[in-house]
TrEMBL record:
Lineage: Eukaryota, Viridiplantae, Streptophyta, Embryophyta, Tracheophyta
Residues covered by the Isopenicillin N synthase-like Fe(2+) 2OG dioxygenase domain: 2-38
Organism name: Gossypium aridum
Gene3D superfamilies per record: B-lactam Antibiotic, Isopenicillin N Synthase, Chain
Name of this chain's protein: Isopenicillin N synthase-like Fe(2+) 2OG dioxygenase domain-containing protein
Family matches, as Pfam families: 2OG-FeII_Oxy
Top-level taxon: Eukaryota
PANTHER family: 2-OXOGLUTARATE (2OG) AND FE(II)-DEPENDENT OXYGENASE SUPERFAMILY PROTEIN-RELATED
Amino acid sequence: MVGDPLKAWSNGRLKSTNHRVMMSGDKDRFSIAAFIMPNEGTIIKTPKELIDEEHPQLFKDFDFMKFFFFAFSNPARHIDSGQLLYDFAALSPPVSNGHMDK
């Protein structure tokens, strides 16, 4: 979910990825999570310079906090599925080779 607003802002040029951790061996691993949240009322909007005939706008403009609450409002929703941004803000279904880019 963290990368989805950046994906929308970049009109799909930057990809959001799922978080994955793979461990091998028997050594301990320590992690620190860091999160950045835009100010309340921040609108995620694709700059007009990133929209043209070859790159039509993929996502509607949206309030980040509304997206955040949408992501966590339903426990059954899979945040890392790659589908969340499309469910919330897609202007049309993604056109690709039949697989959603993740």
